[in-house]
Amino acid sequence: MAEILPFRTLRYNPAKAGELGNVITQPYDKINAAMQARYYDLSPYNLVRIIRGRQSAEDAPEDNVYTRAARALRDWIETGVLVSDPEPAIYPYYQEYNVPGTEQTKQRRGFVALCQLEDYAARVVHRHEETLSGPKADRLELLKATRAHFGQIFMLYSDAEREIEQTLEADTAGKSFAAVTDEYGSRHLLGRCAAPATIGHIVSAMRERKLVIADGHHRYETALAYRAFCRDRGKRDDRAEYVMMTFIRKESEGLTILPTHRVVHGLPGFDWSALEAGAKRFFEWETVEPLGGEHLRSRLAEAGRQGPALAAYASAGKLALLRLRAALDLPGALPDVAPGLRRLDAVILHRLLLEQVLGINPQAVREEKNLRYVRELDEALLQVDRRHAQLALLMNPTPVEAVWENALEGQPLPQKSTDFYPKLLSGLAAYWLDNPAGM
Description:
The protein is of the alpha+beta class. The protein folds into two domains: 4-255 and 421-432, no CATH class; 260-396, no CATH class. 33% of the residues lie in helices and 22% in strands. The chain has 15 helices and 21 strands. The strands form five sheets. Strands 1, 4, 5, 6, 8, 9, 10, 11 and 12 form a nine-stranded mixed sheet that branches. Strand 9 (178-181) and strand 10 form a beta hairpin. Helix 4 (65-78) packs parallel to helix 5 (133-146), helix 5 (133-146) crosses helix 8 (217-232) and helix 6 runs antiparallel to helix 7 (196-206).
């Protein structure tokens, strides 16, 4: 069962840190070099200095990106830039945003709390994607140095009746202590619920829930690794048994999953006609006149309502819609793939089109030798038009129910199968394991 706790968040003090928009960041794994530079310029207290600090050619064991992060954290706490809440609380977290590529506005509601770490084998917390070792090693060293969690783990839970949301709303309606608009125009609001009766009700209601990681697999597995590190030292650290999470209902109308498109590059002997001939073994192939991004999204979505579908785009305006053949013996084509995964667009794209038609093996996919991942459809098309890629493979988003059901069955999806939008900001709340006031 899921065991959650309120906690005393470590948060920015506006009297010392200045405007919140100048100190918070996107999650560390979304921060590229240009974003890092911009964050550094915004404020000497921007969180990037802790979660994605600059490396130096002169880094040494006594002075490196991790030791500098720990030093910055200690200095900011001592000078009052970061302050601890006086009492444990659960923190409602609302996000108001426009769905990219549309004029639709949504609000996503969740709450931030601690959750007891559980191995996947306990079947309380379930993953939906595979992870890579590199990011986890980096995050573990940072966690060892700072003993603080600044990034959120985005957890889905099921609550069709909105019991937990309504309980929180009754206690915190209209109240927030942090509000900021990020660089993508999304509005983030963080509230506080410290009422013992409300907290007790939510803690009790969450015990019966299963949890699925929507975003933050590397952060969760880093927390597991740090728990093991602490246990191996022979002294139990109760605070390392928990990690900070944001919990969001899987039934929420505010959930948005964006597709992540694939662009193929550097493939020897790539030929559109050969792609068509190979793809026709598995797909109905419909040649389409070149379409703008909005119209292409619409056509692809329409095709996807009938079954697995994707689009392929190559230079000189070559465009095709690919629909999985209705008569295809899918178990025969994918005998080693679980039934719940066989009809997912990302699985079909990887296992049939990339592997069997284009000859890009799983190892090359993992190493991104011939493959890049692109969120924006227009950017994927542009990379082909500018000859930075040979082929764009365009996708519909993965339904949240497919994420949920396959995770509970222990069947992770391919990497980059989902892109939950918007991201949860880093720096609105933090879990400091050495907080002298307590958890």
